[in-house]
Amino acid sequence: MKKLIAFGLVLGAPALALAATGNIGGILAQLLSYVKMIVPVLITVAIGYFIWGVIQFISASDEEAKKLGRTRIINGLIGLFVIVAFWGIIAVVQNTFGIESQGKVGSDAIIPGNY
User: Which domain holds residue 87?
Assistant: First the structure.
């Protein structure tokens, strides 16, 4: 539990610093930039896990090892789907609020509370 709290504080500190400025667009831009850095790494890990499952399934001689390989293949595909779907949701949020990848808010963006 202590590790989870410490991890939350490390990730939440930059968001709290941006929240002090009162600019929700800046907060969203900062969070989206973090996600854009993490997503390719997660996709690479999911593809590696999927490939590991395929290799294990192909090279397995007994049924138990084949079942474990099949489970890894399915979990890898589910993980890839979730990551890519999350990436798509982030793109929708960016387009909805007019947030560019450099952290600038578009002039035509309507952000609640930022008139």
Answer: 24-97
